[in-house]
Amino acid sequence: MNTGQSFHSGLSAWWRIGAIFTVIAGFAVLIFISVKAYQYSPPIPKKVVNAAGDTVFTGEDILVGQQVFLKYALMENGTIWGHGAYLGPDFSAEYLHTLAEDVGEALAQERYQQSLEDLQPPEREAVQVEIRRVLKQNRFNPQTQTLLFTKPEEDSYRRQITKWQDHFSEESRNGGLPPKYLSNRGELEHLTAFFAWTAWAAVADRPNKSYSYTSNFPYDPLAGNTLPGAAILWSALSLITLLGGTAAILFAFGKFDYLGWKRGKEELQPRMLPGEATEGQRAILKYFVIVALLFLVQVLVGGATAHNRAEPGSFYGFDLYRFLPTNILRTWHLQLAIFWIATSYIGGGLLLAASLGKKEPKHQTAGIHLLFWALVLLVGGSLLGELLGINQLLGNLWSWFGHQGWEYLDLGRGWQVVLVIGLVLWLILLFRVVTPALKDPEHQEITTLFMIAALVIPLFYLPAFFFNSTSNYTVADNWRFWIIHLWVEGFFELFVTTMVAVLFYQLGLVSRKTATRIIYLDAILFLGAGIIGTGHHWYWTGQTHLNMALSALFSAMEVVPLTLLTLDAWDFVKLTRGSGETGRQKRQLPYKWVFYFLMAVGFWNFVGAGIFGFLINLPIISYFEIGTVLTPNHGHTALMGVFGMEAVALMVLGFRQVLTDEQWRRPEKFIRVSFWGLNIGLALMVVGNLFPEGILQLSDVIHNGYWHARGAEYLANHTVRFLEWMRLPGDGVFIVFGVVPLVIAAIITYATMKRQAA
Predict the structure, then answer these.
(1) What is the value of pTM for the model shown?
(2) Residue-range domain boundaries for the chain
(3) Which residue pairs, CB below 8 angstroms and at least 24 apart, start in 385-389?
(4) Which fold would CATH assign to domain 231-757?
(5) pLDDT tens digit string along 231-250?
(6) Which of 171, 250, 275, 446 has its CA 20 to 30 A from that of 202?
């Protein structure tokens, strides 16, 4: 095997071998876990029967109920097994606790002719033991594919149809849905059958095991759901991989002082200069204007969504949620975040590809225009389709052109096809412009890595097509997080790292060798832990304890590369310094604010993904925490703090590239305000609302059960409401001083560029 020099970068071929081995090994394990998801997912019975053999409901009713759940976008209102939105209840937990109470009441009346509440402690304890025995017993017959319900379970199912009808009729308790949002009796029966199945899978023991299909999630002592021992074991063992990995990487950085963003002794000449944009790069600027506008709309609908938790059913006295219910607002909030961030990456990729290729091919600008209008069609069409879909105006096409119903993958299947076509067109445009660099031995390797990092983005969106509205919920959630975690947190992260390395190389800040090494190093570190670590989302969704073991061990190691960001921060500072005679002379870089936003990425990556991510990823914490406010605490600091700040950095790069030094002075003032507004606003959200409320809710789960901490009664608590109002200062600073100045800077830059062209 050749272990000599890799391409012409001067790097050992072992870097390439290490990256390839990391990816192959990681996916071998992840595919194995995904196969197990099909084999060990909770079974959907052909029919549920009572003791007399009469059918209570069928497996088809369960799947139709799942479609009702998706069609009405209820995953953007509440959760199933902890996954979804936090405006309404966890439907599986609420059904399960109501079922446990109904079974207990029936047993108390049968044995003592009294209400469970009126029993003396010894009798009450005896009934509670029997509740756990009844619910934990798995009466599914795999030969006949039938599930037997006891009479109390059957009676509870029938009563809960009315319970859920009432729930969806009460604006003050349903998390901002319109009155009588779901009132069709047949749909309610199917939906309740689906909830009943999720509750059964959550409590009934797996065959030959002492825990349920969801590993006893959600936590509900009355029903017999308590923390499984495996969660304690693998949480403890994962700390070994964390400490061992941290020690190894710190040793490597101590021994090999060339690792990281190191400036060499040689003087490097920049290959990108502000104000010298090509025709294609100027055409890209309209992408960033749209990105800024989408960002503004996204934070406005996000603020309106969050406000419902502070003032249920009212938006400062206006009945906004009757016209725009929170499930569509939250859908748009998530979709717009993905759209504006991804569009910025697409524009940034085209911008840097043009600098690599140096000479733009014929009709490249026309292709950039075409891709732009395809993105406009995708964004506008999907957002409108989602609104029509939740109002049931698309008939049987709801999952194709309306609201598909899966959180983060809400856009209809037809719009997903448009997205993939757009990404393929983007790849073609990238390839056309970098072709000269691919043939140049000096730039071949870094350009090849750039194209590979871009190629995997459309490639790994394909799992979005591996499931549909009737897939087993465990299987669907498996593939859903291939997109949410692996596509976004894995390969988008890799692509951004590659773009930053290319940018620094093009600006003459690092050598080609350093830039190439950084790409390989990040691929090994981030994907080495992150691919298998994807499974930390599947602890409680019907997968096996093998997934829990592997995911806990590798997910803990995801923190390891994030610790290096503290070193990267200092390297970034040194990269902005010149090399005068004393070695201390500073020079002002024209792309200063690009660096500032990238340094913010390093900070929020360590805080949001590292500290807050590690806080909730251990199984022993995740069991009580998932679906509480600590999840969006991590989500906001990681998604906005990392991917959002990276997207803004690319926007600022685009702005600066098309303007001369003189022209830049005016928009730069707004960029400065935006930098501090975004970072201070995000910090205020965390300190004033997300973190303290998350801790408070976690405490309530531990003391009262998961169902209680996710219920309307808890959310009506005075302290909780106060903390929700404390979100307002952070939101206000973020929007007014963060996003609005960015929009103004985008408009000024675009107008200046157009005047210059005229």
Answers:
(1) 0.92
(2) 5-40, 51-226, 231-757
(3) 385/411, 385/412, 385/415, 386/73, 386/328, 386/331, 386/332, 386/335, 386/410, 386/411, 386/412, 387/328, 389/71, 389/73
(4) Cytochrome C Oxidase; Chain A (1.20.210)
(5) 999 999 999 988 888 888 77
(6) 171
